[in-house]
Amino acid sequence: MEEASSSSGHPRHGDPPPHHVLGYGGFHGGAMPNHSMPSATFFEQDGGGGGAYFGELEEAFMHQVATFSSSGGRRAAHQQQTPTATSTIAHHHGHSNAMPFPSTVAATATAVVAVAAGGARPPPTLDIFPAWPMASLSLHHTPKEGSNVTADSTDSESSSKNNMNKDSSDHHHQQGLVGVVTVASQFHQIPEQYQPQHHQQKMATSSTHSDRTGKALDPKQTTRRLAQNREAARKSRLRKKAYIQQLESGKLKLAQLEQDLQRARSQGLLVGGAPGGNSSAGAAMFDAEYNRWLDDDSRRMVELRGGLHAHLPDSDLRAIIDDALNHYDELFRLKGAAARTDVFHLITGMWATPAERCFLWMGGFRPSDLLKACTLVPQLDPLTEQQMVGICGLEQSLLQAEEALTQGLEQLHQSLAVTVAGSGCLADDANIGSFMGDMAVALGKLSNLEGFVIQADNLRQQTLHQMHRILTVRQAARCFLAIGEYHNRLRALSSLWASRPREILMPDEGNCGQLSIAAHPSESQYSAF
Amino acid sequence: MAAASTDDVGDVRRTVEEKPVVVVGRRGCCMVHVARRLLLGQGANPAVLEVADDADPAALVVALRSSSVNSAKGVVDAYGAAPVATVAAAARHAAFPAVFIGGKLVGGLDRLMAMHIAGELVPVLKQAGALWL
What we know:
The complex is a heterodimer of chains A (529) and B (133).
Chain A: H1 22-31, H2 53-69, H3 82-95, H4 100-116, H5 143-166, H6 171-189, H7 196-212, H8 219-266, H9 281-309, H10 314-341, H11 343-347, H12 354-358, H13 367-374, H14 385-421, H15 435-446, H16 448-470, H17 473-498, E1 502-507, E2 514-519
Antiparallel strand pairs in A: 1-2
Helix pairs in contact in A: 1-2, 1-4, 2-4, 2-6, 3-4, 4-6, 5-6, 5-7, 9-10, 9-17, 10-16, 10-17, 14-15, 14-16
Chain B: E1 4-5, H1 9-18, E2 21-26, H2 30-41, E3 47-51, H3 57-66, H4 87-93, E4 98-101, E5 104-107, H5 109-117, H6 121-127
Parallel strand pairs in B: 1-3, 2-3
Antiparallel strand pairs in B: 2-4, 4-5
Helix pairs in contact in B: 3-4
């Protein structure tokens, strides 16, 4: 029953209800037998006159009861036998949004039938427990409804009592009606998705409507109006559903766009997002350039490997190696420019993968680590004595130079800390005035960071050049390959670490056993590397 | 190791002539510290000269060049693979800290590092008589 009537069951006059009310749809439909709504067919009214709603309902119930009592079947087209009535209602209601309708209507029917058919034999098989759970109520209700609903029920009760007084004071009828109202009032307690303003209006209209006793109203008019209301209610429900769906999809789209934007920005495809956070224009630009450099580098490594395996003449190999060396010079030039633009981006290693960042030294790889990558190089092309001396000397020099730079940076840290701490106690109010002065000095000191990154890159560059000088062409080729592969492995380590399956050990409550669950591997934005 | 402070070019020249290893830099500059540590690690004992924050390294180089010091080629010669031909070129590359070994301008910290990695620093220091060991 796609009906959204007031909880009192009174027809709305031009007020399309936004939501359907559960219990009373059935009642409503029941009052209008001529309506084509399927659930209406259950409560058939034999021209109940344009009476008040409850008057009609009462008659409808009475008629139905009478039909039940008799071995009815005359209006087989319009009504169902009691045993199947419930299921049919359920069936019909199943088509609609109002899932609980079958339960409520069926319960109502059974209750009414049981009450009204006083002396009549109750149908042998009555499905009191409907197939549809009451829990599948619509979620759109506010706590306020409860109070409104209760108020409404009392009013409807009073109005229906008025009806009763106006109509025949048949005890039978009263009983039936009371039964209806009692059951009906129970349904009031079911949370309805109901708007208070409509409620008040319905209250007004219902009371006036019942007062009028409907003698002036044409049943057909009422029927049409009710149908219109139902239609309007249904349409508004569908609109609401569509709107919610739109919102949901919009939300998903927004999240998707944000993700894409973040990814693109981190890859430097969009230069200049909002500065701040971890992505400034300079940082984004460097990231993009660095990624391009990485692609170029891998290309050169492939070329170098191919040249080695193809046993190219030394002159050709030398050309490739020189080219690779120049390519490294290009990288350090890029990094130098980035250091002047955004030193924090470089020195915090946000441009590198997590594993690389872990071993980061002054905004890049530690030069002495390069020698570790090349220690196994001499296997096929052994080093001469002189070369060994040269390499050892290089390692020694590197360690000393790295130590000197590290100590210099440490001194910068200390100096900066002293500046930020200020001359007095930071807790004292008097030192607020020194804020700007201290900040100015600190800014000046911070600028030294650029120098450190540039000096460190210089060290890296010199290391590569020195190795190129010491080693033969083939040795240098293998060495450069080893360096490239070393960094590839570091980047792969980052990806693997990020995507490793996590084991969550949950202690079992009762026993001492443990339950391990492999969680879904987390996403890594560096998995591209 | 006390660092002498001076604003006078003459002072700088005198120090450069007298001491085998001199590091001239701005006050509180961390790179001076780095250069000094590096040289100390080689066994040299550099004299550190602090100049004013606004001192111009190029001007200093030019000034030092103008008075012939220590050798026919002047102070402005730089050690290394790419000797600087003219004073103007040297002035262009001049930066603080400036390292002088044996009265000759070596260059900035990066030049010092390059020499060190290339293994050229120790021989030069030895030649200038800067190493005690």
